[in-house]
Each structure stands twice: as C-alpha cells, then as structure tokens.
Amino acid sequence: MTRCGIVRTFIADARRELIVSSGWRNVEATAIKDARALHEHFKALGETGDYGLERCGEIRELVEEIEELKVREDAIILAHNYQRPEIFEVADFVGDSLELARRGRDAEESTIVLCGVHFMAETAKILSPEKRVLIPDEKAGCSLAESADADELVARRDELRRVYPDLKVVSYVNTTAAVKAVTDVCCTSSNALEVVERVDSRNILFVPDENLAAWVARNTDKNIIAWNGNCYVHHQIRPEEIRKVREAIPDVRVVVHPECREDVLAEADAVLSTSGMIRYARETDATEFLIVTECGLSDRLLLEVPEKRFYKACQLCKYMKMITLEGTRDALVTGQDEILLSPEICDAARGALERMIELS
Ligand code: 13P
Ligand code: SF4
Questions:
Q1: CA of 198 relative to ligand 1 center, distance in Å
Q2: Which of 11, 85, 311, 355 falls between 20 and 30 A from 294, CA-CA?
Q3: In the chain, what are the domains?
C-alpha cells in the first residue's frame, strides 16, 4: 500500500500545510469578509463542508446580522475549538473547556452565547448567574455528561466513603450542573492531573470519563476510582489506526486527547487538551502531526495560516455540529435556548468550579 493509501485508510490527509496559532484566541474586530473572501478563506479546508460561493454569500449575510445583534443584545459569543469553521467568523473567543469557563466568568457583556455543548453553557451560567446564557440548540449534549447521574454519584460516593473516609469526588467539567453540585472539585482535560495532585485526599472518585481517569491514574500515586463513562467520539478510535500512520510516516508526532482509550494514549507522543494540541503543534520543531481528536480542531488549524502538515482523525461530534450560524442568529433574536438553573444547584455547583480555577 502506498503511504497515502495507508493514511487514508483511517485518517483523512488534511492535504494542507498549517500555521498554528496559540491554543485560544481572542478574536479581534476585523472587517466582515465578503462572499468571495470567505470562499477563498475556506479553501484551506479542502473538501470539508459546503463553502461554495452561494453558501459563502449566505454566511456573509448571517455574519452581518449576528454582528448587529451582538451589539443590540450586549452579547459576547464564546466558541469551542470543535465548532464549525463559519462559527469562528462571529466568535469573540475560541478555546478549550477551561479557557471558555474562565472567559465566560470574566465577560463584561450581559449575555453570553455559548457555541459549544450544553455543559459548557451551564458552566458559564454557574460562574455568572446574573448573566443571560444562551445556547443555539439545547439538544447539543455530550455522551460523557449523560453517563453520570447525580443520585447515582451520591450513592457511589457514600458507599466508597465507608471504605475510604477521605474520599473526594473530582468531576470532569463534561458533567451536568446537578453532578457538579455534588462534586468536590471539577477538572478539564488540561488540568486533570494537576487538580488530582493538589486535592487534599489520597482516594479520589473520578467522574465520568474512564479513559481520562486511567490516564490520570498512570501519572499519579493517588488511588483513582473511575466512573464508567466515555466519549463516543474518542472511545471509537483504535491504536491500529495510529500504528498504520506511524508506519507510513515514521517522523509523525502523534498528539492525542486524553478522552481516548488507554491503548490509544499509549501510542501518543503528547496527551493534551484541544488548545494544548494547538500550542504543542506551534511550539515544537516537528513539521508533521497526527491530530487524534474530533475533526473540528483540525479545521481550526487548517484555517489559521498553513506552515506545518497535519493528518486528522475523521471523527465528528454530532453534538458540537448541532450549532449553526442560523441557530446562533435565532438565539440572539428569540432569546432561546436560555440556560435556566435553580439557584440551589447553581450555588452548589459553583464551589467545585471555583476550586478548579483556584487549583490550576
Ligand atoms: P477540551 O477541554 O480539551 O477542549 O475538551 C472538551 C471536549 O469535550 C473534548 O471532547
Ligand atoms: Fe462530549 Fe465527546 Fe462531543 Fe466532547 S467530543 S462534547 S466529550 S461527546
């Protein structure tokens, strides 16, 4: 099999060189691109998506409309790294979960539109209860967040505390507000190990990602007891796919998100959050990378001025892709879907998020 043939078996060749920006970005006010400029800009994506001239004309109109609505509604748009490329055209900030939590907390605007999944919007609401927080589609959930139920967590925690009286619950931010409300401290993919090391207990119930839990357990002396959840996007990636690419491209740097299975993480040169991957790609001398996470991250990289060569895993998160420009415009027009949480849940969940921000 040719080198390209092997790569295309499982991994779409990004076919582009990339310049990688910092992990997060504050998007500076720039002139709205016209349809032709958008069409040229999106050419960097190769065959991804529909960015013909007609669609780019529609995107331009939507971007203009959204920019006006942002002013009228005193709104800021925060977008996760996995979002559709056209969402980056209206985002004021793009980043990973931790960066979005921090940026949402510090926002001066009275409305936050969270272009990401539901738990990210809930996190913004918990940290800024006085603000209106909108998500363009409330069905944009997360398989990890769905896998942990607050009542079951309390039952498991209480059972374990009979054996380990010092046990603390560390929850990934990919959890519901109700789960955060019964959590001691939250973490994200970028600070999980740091949080676990700094929390004042030896025994930790780590919720809900079994893969992130296994990765943390391998890197700490603490006793990590894992919940049995996983991300359907990352959990389906297999080590053989990575080995095939390595065989074809021996110098390739393999960069893996910690939501991947343990046997996939064992193949990695670096295990990083989405924004950590971007920084790593920019800062290392290597020129070829295999990006093992949701495809949207590679799309962001493709757009940000090519310099290095990237190969990407072809995995899409159906929840992240529920967010569209049309939905974002409609959210600003109608005020839906608004994140509404009871003050009790909000107050109880805030401590776990604030402790995470303090510890990392
Ligand atoms: P990051 O915090 O690394 O962006 O991860 C969020 C996520 O949901 C990955 O699947
Ligand atoms: Fe959740 Fe996985 Fe989608 Fe991330 S990629 S939002 S963990 S389902």
A1: 21
A2: 355
A3: 22-138+321-334 (3.40.50.10800), 144-232+341-359 (3.40.50.10800), 233-318 (3.40.50.10800)
Say how many CA atoms lie within 13 Å of 309 toward its Cβ: 8
| 121 C-beta neighbours (distance < 10 Å), count | 26
Residue of 195, 207, 217, 201 whose CA lies nearest to 164: 201
Closest ligand 1 atom, residue 320 Cα: 8
- Quick one: pLDDT at residue 303? 80
Confidence of residue 145 (pLDDT cuts 50, 70, 90): very high
Is residue 106 pLDDT above 80, yes or no?
yes
To test the pocket of ligand 2, the residue of 83, 139, 144 to mutate (highest count of ligand atoms within 8 Å of its CB) is 144
- Return the biggest CA–CA distance within the chain: 65
Lowest mean pLDDT among 5-19, 68-82, 277-291, 339-353: 5-19
Mean pLDDT to the nearest integer, 333-350: 97
273 lines ligand 1 (CB under 6 A): yes
Mutate to test the pocket of ligand 1, among 78, 80, 99, 272 (most ligand atoms within 8 A of CB): 80
Residues with CB under 6 A from ligand 2: 117, 142-144, 174, 231-233, 259, 294, 317, 319-320
pTM, whole model, 2 decimals? 0.92
> Residue 247 — pLDDT band, cuts 50, 70, 90?
very high
Beta-bridge mates of residue 256: 271, 292
Question: How far, in Å, from the CA of 258 to the mean position of ligand 1?
Answer: 9
